[in-house]
Protein 1
Amino acid sequence: MSQKETYENPDLKKERQNCPFNKEEITNLLDGGKEKTAERKQLENYILSDEQLKDAVPMEYLSHADKYAEELRKACLLMHKLENSPAGQVPTLRALMGAGLGSAVLKEGNPLALHYVMFIPALMGQGTIDQQAKWLAKAYNLNIIGTYAQTELGHGTFLRGLETTATYDPNTQEFVLESPSLTAYKWWPGSLGKTANYAVVMAQLYTKGKCEGTHPFMVQLRDEETHEPLPGIVIGEIGPKLGMNTNDNGYLGFEKFRIPRDQLLMKHSQVLEDGTYVKPTNSKLSYATMVFVRVVVCQDVTTNLRKAVTIATRYSCVRRQSELKPGDREPQVMDYQAQQNKLLPPLAATFAFQLASDHLWNLYNTANNNIEQGDLELLPDLHGLSCALKALCSSEGANFVEVCRQSCGGHGYMACSNFPRIYGQVTAAETYEGENTVLWLQVARYLVKTRKEQTGGLSVKYLIGEEKGPKTVDTTLEGIVHLYRRTAVGLVDVAIAELEKSGRKGEAPHDAWNHAAVYLIKAAQAHARLFVVESFVNSLKVGNLSAPVRTVLSQLCELFIIYWLLERSGELFFVRQFIKKRLVTVEFQVRTLLYVKLLAAIRPQAVNLVDSFDLRDEILASPLGCWDGNVYQRLFDEAAKSPLNQSSVHESFHKYLKPLLKSNL
Ligand SMILES: CCCCCCCCCCCCCCCCCCCCCCC/C=C/C(=O)SCCNC(=O)CCNC(=O)[C@H](O)C(C)(C)COP(=O)(O)OP(=O)(O)OC[C@H]1O[C@@H](n2cnc3c(N)ncnc32)[C@H](O)[C@@H]1OP(=O)(O)O
Ligand SMILES: Cc1cc2nc3c(=O)[nH]c(=O)nc-3n(C[C@H](O)[C@H](O)[C@H](O)COP(=O)(O)OP(=O)(O)OC[C@H]3O[C@@H](n4cnc5c(N)ncnc54)[C@H](O)[C@@H]3O)c2cc1C
């Protein structure tokens, strides 16, 4: 960072003095070790020093088509750079696909992301060994570029309702792909519009006159030389979106398009030459690619949140506004308790989400290895937890990013602040890979089943048997975690009671379920929060942390746990044993004794904590969040890039405004 040598805002300089903990220790912790930090830094130098990967003008000033072309140029250049990357191909790819290094170069969505995040994983998870041998090397070498085409114009959530058909013709040993209506058109897949020439397509499999449900098919969409759509393929891009505008989300229709039988991905289920269908051991195995992405989305959201928090925290220590003590100099806005209340919970959340996502990643790897050996025991727990954390991290993450933006006042509304882009990425994750409400209901289904049948995986063990632990109000960390547990159990019980009440009234189970949705969603959310707070608390018990780092992380942990408790205190009313009086007592004790005290305790370390994320200026891509705090000069420099500032009078003045000024209307 060359700015470090030339200028440092005096307020930020002061914030950085006398840091009681070793920032590098936290950096190493987040990276996964000292060596990993060194590798990351080397990789960042390698990628970010390349002049050809820098934007000539800010992306906002380009047209829709030019934005796509420019991002594709950089994405392809990045792929060339993979070959010589000092960190090796896979770690480089991982870094580029994630929200950190990748978004420093590819600002509005990576047109090759789906190839790596969904197409390759789908081939690996759904293809037989022979199919992998045929397609994977080509995919890795970028001889072909693929996407994952599942969602249709008419259906995204309800996969059993997908309309695209793949009908087996035993005479030619081919499947015939067809989009029987406009609503059957694939709609949304990333990279589909212009980039991909292949796709894993989810379609209803028909053989011997019977529908066997949705299955994955490997389909060539475009000519490998000319890139023209193949006959029978109708393809295009769906147009501008709230964010991620350089990822060419597309549409796709099939007009009696034929593919060979062996392009059904047959790892879990098969269609034999004569059309005989061989069932999978579990019909949900064809949903496995989504499970993988839900897991990585949690990490992606966390990295994005770290950027937002860094920008907002540094800016809040540079920005001076209003009067705290009459007659005194205007204070740093970070010194207002109200500002700390906005920013310190999301700062703590970055740690909470990272630790929970790490647990989920470990579960994913274990479960996936077991599945490869034919053991599906961990699948329900993996499904439940991946849905829960994906929904929680993305919804809370999007809210926190918005709060970070608000905490920067007007300047946070500028495109160059980078908040619009970060928000666009994080809020997209609330919808894609399973709309969050729908995922909460999946989680609730698992919780209700566990509680009623008294059997379930590790993440729901607390629902089995009688709920143990103190029944009195306890403000220790363990006591508060217990309160979360009691709330989660209580909310599941309340939801079950609602279901049973509807049952007694004679409602069918599906109606009872619909009428209990509000309770079910609350129960699922309480479960997800419990998992996150337990992960945070347990992670601090283990691990080789120095005393100062343990202290600051423990403060953040405590703050976060109490923050959520206060935010969600209304939910305690749902749980019978918490009478109003006791709730008020808890609120009072917690708020006065702990929360506010913790805000004040963590406040002096806010800048040091975000510094320890070690996010380079190029990655933050925001004049508000730069390491040197030279906010005003940088905002001014950004404004100078506006095309409207390239002449003193714009040509439109002569065309429109001048005639108006001269006319009498
Ligand atoms: C050179 C080297 C190369 C190396 C390559 C290395 C690559 C590294 C890459 C690493 C990446 C790093 C990080 C990158 C991060 C970037 C991330 C950003 C990019 C993201 C791009 C995203 C693009 C988006 C894509 C999409 O959106 S795809 C479409 C997604 N669609 C959905 O999610 C649809 C949601 N709907 C559903 O899932 C289902 O329909 C439903 C679950 C809601 C309902 O289904 P159904 O009706 O069939 O089921 P029921 O409700 O009846 O339930 C029946 C039972 O089934 C169980 N169930 C359901 N689903 C699952 C499941 N998935 N798994 C297991 N079990 C499941 C239920 O629990 C029920 O069970 P029960 O009967 O016992 O109760
Ligand atoms: C940026 C982005 C990228 C995407 N990339 C891809 C991709 O690469 N490949 C791909 O195949 N798809 C992709 N998608 C599509 C995405 O997976 C779907 O949009 C998502 O699964 C939601 O489905 P839907 O749009 O049909 O919403 P709907 O299901 O129609 O949701 C509309 C509303 O109905 C509610 N609802 C629906 N069902 C229920 C229910 N059972 N109970 C209660 N409420 C319900 C929802 O909560 C929501 O409020 C992408 C989407 C976005 C935004």
Protein 2
Amino acid sequence: MSDALDARPYDALLLLSFGGPEGPEDVVPFLENVTRGRGIPRERLEEVGRHYYRFGGVSPINAQNRALAEALRKDFAAHGLRLPVHWGNRNWEPYLTDALRDVVRDGARRVLVLTTSAYASYSGCRQYRENLAESLAALEAEGLAPPRVDKLRHYFNHPGFLDPVTDGVLAALGRLPEAVRDGAHLAFCTHSIPTASAETSGPDGGAYVAQHLDAARVIAAAVREATGVDRPWRLVYQSRSGSPQVPWLEPDVCDHLEDLHGSGAPAVVMIPVGFVSDHMEVLYDLDTEAMAKAEELGLPAARSATVGDDPRFAAAVRELVRERAATERGERPRRCALGTLGPSHDVCPAGCCPARTPKPAAAGADSPYA
Ligand SMILES: CC1=C(CCC(=O)O)c2cc3nc(cc4[nH]c(cc5[nH]c(cc1n2)c(C)c5CCC(=O)O)c(CCC(=O)O)c4C)C(CCC(=O)O)=C3C
Ligand SMILES: [Fe+2]
């Protein structure tokens, strides 16, 4: 096929995600997988278990990843990119090791990995790289030759990620009462992480917050452009866990709603810019908990959509695959990025987003695998 996109040297794309329970009996074992060795207080686990039971023990994240994998296959097929799409999770079925085993049995030697986390941080990047190293070790122990895995660069500033979020904000503004629409504040929401891991995130530190601020600035400017209204915005945090003595990024979204109300803001749009799909952290922490807080305050609020399986996001992934494949072949492709930070690094340098306890991590300069 002459107009086919060249995926060489890659043989497969692996969608790597968090995973979530798909029934009440999955909830406890899932939470045990997530929190193994991470020092989460027991009460917090029981609390988070209740979030899942409230939705029948089903997180929507797996269905969302199935839809994203389908959207990628459709987009790739429509553009002549012949690259099989596999899917595996860190914390639930289908597990990463099983997905990688399928990839190897298909004969793939070089695999590109897309994680469902757009930003740099230990939880959003290195921890997935550690999971890859563990799975490669497991395959080796089974006598299989581990493939070489590379991770796609962070896509928080790719237009195919930001444009659908902007559209979601415009739609959410449209759901607010007209009288408060122009005065609405924008609250960009992401997962809180310990301040210590925020400080050491990315190749030079501070990447987690800097990348979110860059994304938020682009979206706020695009919303201003589209509506002719300059709305105040702020980056806020949600889903804090861990021990209360350890400092995590603040302010919490619910505290921010109180501040907004106290300062006379007429309305707010909550924008889950830190997440790729409307999974449990969005459905519970924003749609349930933060919405209840807004209601209690009498603050009109709307929550905007995440990118999910938007065709523009699928197209962005195709662009990123094409870009990386060309780079690996020694070409110098165009690297698309909005905002001020520029396209992110392709290969995490040694020590990027360090863990508290060092562990082998694949798909980076410090990978023990080729
Ligand atoms: C940065 C980040 C992302 C975004 C990047 C990415 O997407 O990867 C993310 C995503 C997610 N986090 C999720 C769920 C959970 N995260 C937890 C705990 C933690 N998350 C952390 C950070 C992040 N988390 C951290 C620093 C902890 C503390 C413990 C530790 O250091 O590991 C816990 C334990 C209980 C608790 O909340 O305390 C649960 C259940 C789900 C699944 C939702 C679903 O089921 O639909 C998703 C997509
Ligand atoms: Fe999390």
